[in-house]
Amino acid sequence: MPRYSETRDERLQGGPPPQVQADAQQGAAPPQVEANAWQDAAPSQAEADEAVTPLLGSELLNPADASRLLSGSPGRVVVWLGERDSGKTTLTARLYERQRLPGQDVGFAGSWTLLAFEALAYGRRLAASGAQSPADHPTREGDERQIYHLALADGADRMNLLIADLPGEQFRALADNQLPLSSIPLVRRADKLVLIVDGGCLRDPARRASALTRTRQLLERLASDSLPHPGSELALVVTKWDLVAEDPDTLAYWLAREHQLADDVRELQASAEHVRVAAGAPASFPQDDGVGALRSWLVATPGAVSDPPVDPVDWPDDAPERMRMPWRRTT
Ligand SMILES: Nc1nc2c(ncn2[C@@H]2O[C@H](COP(=O)(O)OP(=O)(O)OP(=O)(O)O)[C@@H](O)[C@H]2O)c(=O)[nH]1
Ligand SMILES: [Mg+2]
């Protein structure tokens, strides 16, 4: 899978996002910007930095901030689409935590929502020690600050991930047709739409069927709204894979349905990705947590295709003998 496969021109021209300092949140109040301003005329990088930098810290970004950030740097807008408690925030937190570990092939290059990430990571550590349940970023009714920012570096190449953590209630309203998809600018703007199936629900015989039904309902909603739009990509992600993998009954239930659901997703987009992730699994879970595979897909250029396999050559019967020689002699 390509990592950062866009052309050189598309790569980040400016430097990395400002390396966020914990005390940087004492800047001026954020500028008053029109909400959902994805289509705004692109400001210069300097204007973008000036407009967004004061938000450093605990606040998440709103679509207008994210739009400014993307005006000067390549990036991907990522939207998790999943029920309440399906593991969306854990995915976000784990992507951040993993990048901060030494020895990663893709490094951490800054964040404009650093303190929000740190608060999540701290909550997760407390939860792991049994002190409390995992913290989520507090969301207020009508608040559009739902976007985490994570800049990644692969050598000289940089990439911004803008990760929208929509509340689970919004997903339910979408699937139930109470809320038009078009009413959520982030969904329209997404480069990467991630359809989440909650492995925890699959583990529960009373909830597993309805979890799959909801996923299919959302697929229908996406199809009827002509989403994903050209240039954006779709993935089916099963979260809490540890809960599925460890229980033979759950695993059998899922394996019997996985292909059909993946086919349904691929009817919407033939190249849709399918990943199993255990972002919040206990350390004792022996399998790969899938976060690396998910991250590779998130940063890959939408629509990037790998070269098709080369067809085997049928040499004509009358081909000269030399041309038939194998490339490598076996002795
Ligand atoms: N075993 C296991 N538990 C997980 C995993 N991922 C998340 N969880 C747990 O699932 C619960 C919900 O996770 P969240 O990440 O808060 O879910 P969410 O989708 O953000 O929830 P809302 O914001 O309320 O919609 C938490 O108790 C997590 O610890 C996982 O991979 N394995
Ligand atoms: Mg959450």
Which features would summarize this protein structure in a list?
331 residues, alpha/beta, Rossmann fold, 7 strands, globular, disordered N terminus, disordered C terminus, binds guanosine-5'-triphosphate, binds magnesium ion
List the helices and strands and how they pair.
Layout: H1 45-52, H2 63-72, E1 75-81, H3 88-99, E2 107-108, H4 114-128, E3 147-154, E4 157-164, H5 168-175, H6 185-189, E5 192-198, H7 199-203, H8 208-224, E6 233-239, H9 241-245, H10 248-268, E7 273-276, H11 291-299
Helix pairs in contact: 1-2, 3-4, 8-10
The protein binds guanosine-5'-triphosphate and magnesium ion.
Magnesium ion is lined by residues 88-89, 136, 165.
Describe this structure in words.
With 331 residues, the chain is α/β, with parallel strands linked by helices. It has one domain (38-304): P-loop containing nucleotide triphosphate hydrolases (Rossmann fold, 3-Layer(aba) Sandwich). 35% of the residues lie in helices and 13% in strands. The protein contains 11 helices and 7 strands. It has helices at residues 45-52, 63-72, 88-99, 114-128, 168-175, 185-189, 199-203, 208-224, 241-245, 248-268, 291-299, and strands at 75-81, 107-108, 147-154, 157-164, 192-198, 233-239, 273-276. It has a 7-stranded mixed beta sheet with strand order 2-3-4-1-5-6-7, sandwiched between helices. The longest helix is centred in the last third of the chain and has 21 residues, at 248-268. 37% of the residues are buried. Mean pLDDT is 77; it is low at 1-45, 47-55, 305-313 and 322-331. The structure holds guanosine-5'-triphosphate and magnesium ion (MG). Guanosine-5'-triphosphate (GTP) is lined by residues 82, 84-90, 133-134, 136, 167-168, 239-240, 242-243, 278-281. Magnesium ion (MG) binds at residues 88-89, 136, 165.
